[in-house]
Amino acid sequence: MANIDRRTFLRTTTAIAAGAVVPDLTLATDNNNKELMASPSPATSHVTKTLASYIVSARYEDLPENVRKEGLRTLLNWVGVAVGGSHHETIDIAVDALRPFSGLSQASILGRRERFDVMNAAFINGVSSHIFDYDDTHLKTIIHPAGPVMSAILALSEYRRVDGRAFLNALILGVETECRIGNAVYPDHYDRGWHITGTAGVFGAAASAGKLLDLSEQQMIWALGLAASQPVGLRESFGSMNKSFNPGRAASNGLFAAILASKNFTSSNEMIEAKRGWASTISTKQDYKEIADGLGQRYEALLNTYKPFACGIVMHPAIDAAIQLRNQYQLKPEQIDTVNLRVNPLVLELTGKKAPTAGLEGKFSIYHAVAVAMVEGAAGEKQFSDRAVQDPVIIALRTRVTPVVDPAVKPEQVEMSITLKDGRQLEKSIQHAIGSLEAPMTDHDLESKFTDLSEGILTSEQTRELIALSWSVEKLSNAGDLAKAAVPA
Amino acid sequence: MANIDRRTFLRTTTAIAAGAVVPDLTLATDNNNKELMASPSPATSHVTKTLASYIVSARYEDLPENVRKEGLRTLLNWVGVAVGGSHHETIDIAVDALRPFSGLSQASILGRRERFDVMNAAFINGVSSHIFDYDDTHLKTIIHPAGPVMSAILALSEYRRVDGRAFLNALILGVETECRIGNAVYPDHYDRGWHITGTAGVFGAAASAGKLLDLSEQQMIWALGLAASQPVGLRESFGSMNKSFNPGRAASNGLFAAILASKNFTSSNEMIEAKRGWASTISTKQDYKEIADGLGQRYEALLNTYKPFACGIVMHPAIDAAIQLRNQYQLKPEQIDTVNLRVNPLVLELTGKKAPTAGLEGKFSIYHAVAVAMVEGAAGEKQFSDRAVQDPVIIALRTRVTPVVDPAVKPEQVEMSITLKDGRQLEKSIQHAIGSLEAPMTDHDLESKFTDLSEGILTSEQTRELIALSWSVEKLSNAGDLAKAAVPA
User: Fold this and answer.
1) Which domains does chain B have, with CATH numbers?
2) pTM confidence score
């Protein structure tokens, strides 16, 4: 606690010394006015303009091959999770609530037959894609990049025809925008309580939608400004439907910003970097180089990862170890005496629930996660269902799982030691769990995840076609076809 | 500057000592999870629930007479400014941009003939009502209370029939909610860069719309939680269309929250007061007593004020003095030699523009404001037009206006001394300008302001009828009739 206070103090005073936060209690008026202010230093000037200029000028043809490829993996993973979440109670509620206010059938809800206007469709698809907490992760910021961006541009593409290459370019630019802006303020911004996927995500949605709307540089500056005016989401909502709400609302807010800007609805020209702009208002850290440097040279899309398991990343190393040992030794639960783990302290802090009774609680139980992975060889959405956490075989095994905290073990690591009833001792050490940047999911893994999520919603044939269409989006003359292909036949 | 730094440091460390902000850099994960936390102290517990409980149970019949009356004044003033702003370029753009996405003709745009779905109509009317910066002001927080609330509930009332008394009750509860939440975080929250009308306003819109949707206490808690997830607006946008955007988007965001909550879309139960809830994330000051104490006993609606002049409050004392001297002595511009003012330092800091060339710039010129008030006996929207700032008579007079800064003069005061060409010296001292709580606009003043704003948009007869309907809203069996009456015949 003392450590934390000292750190906060240092962070705050450093930020003040840098001119980041200069509150003014005397300014008790709300005129249409900006105060006189010193010129920003070169390092902090033109951040919004530089970014906007890049977004409007960046071409599909300039994308490096590996960036293009990672964009396709991001797209495929997102379509799968959006279809997979589409029949969750949260989506039934959102559809029911919003239908009376959406008269136009402009855009599809993935995995369902209802159609909505573009902005409400973007919202609902964004919610759907985050429900299982199974979407993509930009590990540097913990942003889930695809939700705000794909939801916005896929709905827009059904209204305004765009070819698949322009679509992929917009996706990559949206990811670039939100992750760079996230980099600039992470971790302070997140520590403070913001759900960064919703706060940075709205910029990604605005940038990508604005790209498809052919905004001028000035219009893109305004779109980013209107996006800055609509951050979404607090971490306090985690555990409720409000968490999935955040990427969905980031998508519709970003679209709203881009659509208004396309008709010359104005904003500030320095909304991100101004003295009382977004970054200074919402964070004590502002590293503008993360936004403006190396545009078109380094790509945040290359830092995107995909979850192999439908739960928080903190449990992934242990699940990975359990599945590997199970498969290697063809283990049956009745053979296992005890499972001992050495884990990073975060594991017990976040997932220390010993006896979950509902599926969702299972996502916060390292005991359940290891047991179910050992019994079923997987940790998808089905393994975090009510059925799974109430399975007597899994319950019996989870009581024999013993995690021990060790600060020397990094969050991406685990040491697992299994004692079998026949006395054998099996060991597994994970340095980087499957799904991390160092051990990425293969394309085949992504397809299997997609198929698993789509089961019961789309037919096997339709699922295969949708996967193929996702991989080949660059060949589509109308990217909106992707959304239509995700509607049950 | 040294003072400001010290103040910020004290504020920050005090907040930390109070447990308000405890950042955690180690928590580099984004699970569906809230950390273990100490139980909140009694003072900070159940804030959201207490407020929600009050909102759902408060009845029209319990409103004190003076609160009811002030609610009507708030309503009348809002209808006038919304009609008045409805043909500004900003609204033309918003209508043009959003029309393709709004298929339903559910709700009116005041002062215009287009109809939109409820949420887009709420947005547009909210923008319209703030365009001239001429709406109401809760001086304790500088919130403009009516924009987010009236825009949300009037549009909703056209979709879902509600009688006028329930409507007025919802308006007062919305104002109560947003202003109390604003009180809890002002001024730190505003100092930091947030446009408090948009950040607190979304709660007012959610509360008032939720009241009309008959939310249960639990649903109201969720509506407030979803509202907390959608703050709108940064002060950096002041001077652009984005400023008016903020109350409009607060209205549609609050509606969105209430509509989802009405179908049991869930959020946290402690979204305002939790350790990483709204107040701690968005401000270093959290005074929860301002939210939860004395509900139904004191009313923020009684602290609402209405601008007699279409510019920032800081110039109001000088304008008031100018008009009073002009009328008292029947002054003509050619009689005047010099106008000397002693003013609070804020006046020159905020409105020191000597030679404005466009109407909007005139709002930031104490020289123009005093001159035009002296020449035309008014300072409405017409006095801040291009025509007015380019009028040779007014230009000639403004060069003879000399403000002198004096920290002993409070922001609500002015000392004016006019020297006439015949050598006479006229003096006027203002302690509280017209429009302040101490010298409120009369009902007749409000009607004159309304008529002035409505001119050229509605006929005189329709304007008279709309004013009468606003005063008598409690007698309406369908409050939505008010919106229909504000559409040009």
Assistant:
1) 42-307+471-485 (1.10.4100.10), 313-430 (3.30.1330.120)
2) 0.89
